[in-house]
Amino acid sequence: MSAERVCTTAELQENKAFRVVLDGTAIVVVKDSSGAVHAIGDTCTHGDISLAEGFVEDETIECWAHGSQFSLSTGKPLNLPAYEPVPVFDVVVDDSGVVYIDPANSTLAS
Q1: CA 81, chain centre distance (Å)
Q2: Could you tell me which CATH class the domain 4-105 is placed in?
């Protein structure tokens, strides 16, 4: 599988989660306050809750249900009750601002 076009950077609102489903994988895409684009798994590892419905601040996304925060860069949980990381997907932004993600290529922090 290769990277798929998801959106453009102009379509992403700063610090707002954007949910996409690629090949059956739910992914949250976020443009942080520095303009960097991140893509992480959409499901909180503490409960089966969509992170896209959560709150984005700086380089974190917070699950609205129980307050666990995850790093947008590493997927690591930063506080309890979650203790397992969410997957992080490689993001490529081309010169015209188109965002591409490969849903088959993710990493999981240890």
Answers
A1: 19
A2: mainly beta
